[in-house]
Amino acid sequence: MGSSSSNMNHIPNAQELMQETGFSAAHLLRLYERFEFLDRDGKGELSPDDFEAVRELALNPIGGRIIEAFFPQGQETVDFASFVRVLAHFRPNDPNRKDGAQQDQANSRTRKLKFAFQLYDQDRDGKISRNELLQVLRAMLGIQVTEEQLQSIAERAIQEADLDRDGAISFDEFKKSLEKVNIDHKMSVRFLK
Amino acid sequence: MLPLGVMLLLLTAAAADDLSGTGAPPLRGPGLGFSSPVPASPSAPPLLLLPRPQEEYGAPGVALARSAAEEQSGPGEEGGEGEHHHHGGGGYKIVQWEWSYVQTPYIIAIWLLLASLAKILFHFSQRFTTVVPESCMLILLGLVLGGVVLIANKKQLYQLEPALFFLFLLPTIVGDAGYFMPARLFFDNLGAILTYAVVGTLWNAFCTGFCLYAAKLLGVIDERVQADLMDFLLFGALISAVDPVAVLAVFEEVHVNDTLFIIVFGESLVNDAVTVVLYKVYISFVEVGAENVQTADYFKGIASFLIVSIGGTLVGLVFAVILGVITRFTKKVRIIEPLFVFLLVYLAYLTAELFSLSAILSMTFCGIGANKYVEANISQKSRTTVKYTMKTLASIAETIIFIFLGISAVDKSKWAWDTGLVSCTLVFILLFRAMGVIGQTWVLNRFRLVPLDKIDQVVMSYGGLRGAVAFALVVLLDGEQVKAKDYFVATTIVVVFFTVMFQGLTIKPLVKWLKVPRSTSRKPTINEEIHERAFDHILTAVEDIAGLQGYHHWRDKWEQFDKNYLSKLLLRKSVYRKSELWEAYQKINIRDAISVIDQGGNVLTSARLSLPSMASRASFPEVTNVTNYLRENGSGVCLDLQVIDNVPGAKVEEDTETHHVLAENLYKPRRRYQSHYSRHFMPLGEKERQDREVFQRNMKSRMETFKSSRHKRHKKERSLKKRRGSDVKEDGSDKPRRNVSWHDKNPVVVPVESEEEKGDHSDPEKEDDVGITFIARKPETPKQRPQSVPAALDSPQSPTASLASPPSGESHLPWKGSVGSPPPCVSVEATKIIPVDLQQAWNQSISSLESISSPPAPPEPVHPRVSALARLGGPRPVSYTPPGSAVGSTSSITAQLSQGSFRFPERKKREEEEEEEDDDGSAPEMRPLMSSLRPPGPLPPPPPPPGPALGSGRRRNPCVYLRSLVTAPPPGSGEPHSRGPTQL
After folding, report:
1. Could you name the Gene Ontology cellular component terms for this entry (chain A) (predicted)?
2. ipTM of the complex model
């Protein structure tokens, strides 16, 4: 425990982070190790290049978008706290943890969905336009489908979800279209201790 | 008491005798004699349904040798008066009694019939079957039947014969389960499944065995039960495994949530390896005697477990690969595709048995592994066949198993009762099951993303049903070696009955009372499909970023491997390029189509109830001749695990009739039916519906006046077209008045080009589907063609005209009514569009068939391909938003088309040509709009938007049309609605 507590000391604001994100100390330590591993030049910040160095991520069709999600608008780098905050979205929702703050916790259903929504919503106008949906679809489907097939899938998806008929999917509509999906299942990663 | 003799089902005598040494009942009969007051008669006469003493009869020469030999005691059958024939007299007998000749298949057939009838009987009362599981009823029926036989015959003739069970009944159920196993769900929970199956079963087996032995030492179990530790461990091994048959039978009716189901069911399948090994190990231990067992033997047991389980899995996977490769090359022999599936899956089972590996594991993994590739390779009809055959066989096998369990229990000669043993066993299996589940869940929950809560654990403990596998295993025991076999048999029967009947009966109320989350048979929407895929990618990325080599990481690796190597090896080229998401999309579309059409079916007269669904299935697959895509779609309909709806055969006459029926019946607003299928409809408020209805009626009356005053010309055109059939050139020459004139100059371009394009573009897919059409070939028949071709061609072209032309002239055409009557043009009401869709699908099929036979194909059918090609080349404004969301996709595609068409003159011409026809054939909702614009004389270049939608519309017509069907907007928002009236 001695070494880990000394490590914990390296993590800035570890207590607050744990409080905020719900990660345990072990989680945080592990993530910090990972962070340091990714942070090749040791600045304590990650640049998009650092992310792109992860080989598997390059194979991920929407990896670029996910990397972007780590960088708030205008920022070039991400520090450990932000890094952990983003990852906290994917912490499984702990049913035993009833501290009332469930709503604004990063791993709440809404926040998870919001994260996914923003991957689609590139221009941050609060709506997934047909074009934006198409871009994601194109990335995910690759060359397997023709453009027109993509078009019709996107068309259909928008028609299905678009309740107010503005030709785009708002966050509420997005949420609504996924209301039957167990988001806690589908948007959670088991973080190793 | 009765003379014993293990009377086996004749079926077994015929089939199992030579297949399995264990299956020869007459040999085993004497072995049981010690428990029977009366010396067992060594003869095991074949058994008949209601045997009664009969005099021996000479078997005709044709009789099977074996059955003749076994016929000595000559039981006859009810109504066997004909048996008195004797052949000794010579001379020619006019009527001969050939019982021994047909005996075996006859009795098999009778049993199957009986089992099926039993099912019908149980489902007479809806309320009854919702309370009492079918398996309970079947066991009760078996008890009654067994009792009848016992009373009538004074001895039991039938029993669940292990060889029959393991070689025939079990594989059908396991094969079905494995093949239709939801693979993703299975692998998502693989950790839990393996834990429960291996650790849980071992725990149960050992604890039950040791505790029973302890109970024996304590004197709770009677002295008569001559069993030592090894016997009890053996018994514990066979009684501890959760049974797949029972679990399936009970849980299918309970509908617990998917995770819970897959864990219990997966466990019941996977624990087979443990059971097999434990059983065999203990049998060998019992044979050599406990004192002779050496330490090495335990390690041998462990090694054996690894070999049995891993080997079984590997055998299954090898057969899965073979099956995948074979189905790659069945293009020309579609008709035997299902056979390959059955044979190879069954061979996987038998091969594993051959090497005494875990046959259930082998079959399960063969099914899971092959499913994806096979389903993609084989034709739609083969898929349906596979599904129905598997389900039918599994259902019948299950029925027979439960009936025989009931019958077997009646025969008191084979079991011996000991209250201590029975009650101890019952208590122990329940207790240890619960303890095991709780303990393992506690461990598992530390690793599981979604922990299993207490309710889940209760259901899992309670759902640990024992069944026929245990019974068959205990019957297989050698009475010489295991002295207490009869006690074990009795105990097993009680345990099986208790778990299947009592627990099966009470699990439903329990699940309800505990409010266990139920499964929904809901199908994912396209949004869910898309987003869930995105979630997978996101999670993989997050795992990569966070440096976790987690589940998603490995699943992603597997998918890469699958995509790069396996799919290339196992999938046809034509299928390989397909995207799953695209397939999902099409499935959804077809599902909608069918629900829409079935909805039409609701309003039909009862005599014609089956027609709409038939039409939907008969006509949609035809579209695949070009794009091949519906092979997947159908599966969306047919591969639903829960719902088996029947697919009637398609007959052309009926198809024609369907068109009549649809045309006649679909045009009246029938809201209440629509609400039945609300799942795929955008929710419409009551008020909006009302509005729409009113709107339609108004439109109808307006149309009446409208068409009488205008559009005379269209009527003429139309009749021209009709006479000429499908010649587009003539169409073209008819139309220049309202179209650009260059159109006339080189009309030949179209057929020629399309011909070659068709050659390279659509050929492979067309071939692909040739085999499918064993029903659908009918449209080819010369008798039908003259009627259907013009009509089909006519209808897509005619909508514009139809506005003008009174239906009177065309009413003799099957679907004339639909096109001729105005309201459908206006309405987006789902049902109304279907006829057009059907016609197009129809049209498509005919065109493709014709294009095979006659090179200069009629231009009309060619268009989809041409336009598709043209569209591929054209620029696609991705951001294009349709003017009216109601016609959304149609018009947006249209817009692309028109843009593409400005690129190259030739293509433009072609498209223009299409356009003009498409104006007619495009989405019906647009018709009023178009027609209202057009009549005022020759138009400048046809307005791009609604035009060439036909190309896409036809090629993907289900998609386009259905989209408009399904998401039929309220009148206010859709362009046709809002604008139509004002223009008219």
Report:
1. cytoplasm; nucleus; plasma membrane
2. 0.89
